[in-house]
Amino acid sequence: MNESEQVSIIGAGPAGLTAAIVLRKQGFPVRVFEKASDVGHRLNGDFQGLENWSSERDITDILREIGIGINFLCVPYYAGTVYAAPSMKPLKVTSEIPIFYLLKRGAMTGTLDSGLKEQALSLGVDIVFNKRIDSFDGKTIVGTGPKGAVGITMGITFNTSQKDMVEVIFNDEIAPKGYAYLMVYQGKGTIVSVIYREFKKINYYFDRTVHLFKNSLEIDVRNEKKFGGYGDFFIPDTQVLKGNLYIGEGAGFQDFLWGFGMRYAILSGYLAAKSLISGSDYDEMWKRELKPMMETSLVNRYLYEKFGHAGYRYIARRAADNDPCGFLRGHYNPSLLKRLVLPLAKARVSKGDKEGNGVR
Fold first, then answer.
1. 82: three-class secondary structure by DSSP
2. CATH number for the domain formed by residue range(s) 7-74+103-148+232-282
3. Mean pLDDT (whole number) for 1-28
4. What is the pTM of this model?
5. Cα separations (Å) of 170 from 81, 82, 164, 305?
6. Domain ranges of the chain
7. Tens digit of each residue's pLDDT (9 = 90 or more) over 183-240
8. Domain 152-229 maps to which CATH number in 3.60.21, 3.30.870, 3.30.310, 3.30.70?
9. How far apart are CA 195 and CA 178, in angstroms?
């Protein structure tokens, strides 16, 4: 590809901005089109976790290697408390390496979204807000966000005097086939419920989540702001349609087990950019780097739903009794057993359900 040829990127999410940064560092003129008035428009300053267990290398080292600076809130967390199933006592999980990095999302200062925007603008990327693009000309990367919903989220951000902490719940009576969490950092907090079943009852389950955290921890919640969202997942045959490269959650790049999509979004944007820079086959690249883990996450979702509370207790105990990152890494990466179970998982989720679960 000629470096003088402009690349258009549709969507200013983490995937699109990563692609823009990587391309611009190699001298390509880049223009990003975003239909909203700013980055992170669906988010509300909520805390999210950038997982650090699916690879042996620290995720922040990977980000720096692909050209992404850490100019946003990125706090390592080495411990947390897990509540698994209704009758099980809470377990403390600790690790010698970060289990995840706490990030802030949204348009305000210090978020992943605003940090990536700042990096892109400083390199000379042209970002056009309030502009929707439905037809594409020339070299185009498309990262427009989720189209469907395999899981939905409801949460609040708030102020609190509670100390810094992380609490996670695996309990179908609180978040059916999903999870709920509380994160507190420097007087700011986020409570979230993520469910994969009974979507119409999200308000009911979220109220139960908030009630549990408030009562069990006696946490004070002030100036709360509510937010919601949804996540998508599917594994297509190709991510190249009419010459356009598809990235991020709108292309199905997601962890189907628990919805940790930021790693997938960023890496898919990087791979799309590298394919244009080197002239390599984008489909070959993402199928080599990301598809095996996506298929494993499909198997993990199948097993997670099949074993229910018994499985949640197993995960909590093993994570508490062992190195949690090593334990999770073993389940997040491909194996012979996972390959054998994959046809069953594909057959199960391809049927979908009334809530919209399924793989396209």
1. strand
2. 3.50.50.60
3. 91
4. 0.94
5. 11, 8, 21, 11
6. 7-74+103-148+232-282, 152-229, 292-350
7. 999 999 999 999 999 999 999 999 999 999 988 888 999 999 999 999 999 999 999 9
8. 3.30.310
9. 5
